[in-house]
Fold this sequence. Notes:
Residues 1-18 form the signal peptide. Keywords: Signal. The chain is an alpha+beta fold. The protein has 1 helix and 2 strands, in the order αββ. It has a two-stranded antiparallel ribbon.
Amino acid sequence: MRLILSAMLLAISTAATAADKPVALFNGKDLTGWEGDTEKTWKVEDGAITAGSLDAVVPRNEFR
């Protein structure tokens, strides 16, 4: 009985995971769809999200 129950739970969890499609969080180009201070604090450089300004040097960043 435990074997059958375990097999059923495994099949259900596998089916639920397989049904979910991956979602891209970052397109590697810009911060489209992102929330937060994308004008002053965050930018994209060489395909990576970095902290800083597009126009000025930021002396430091604070993350909490």
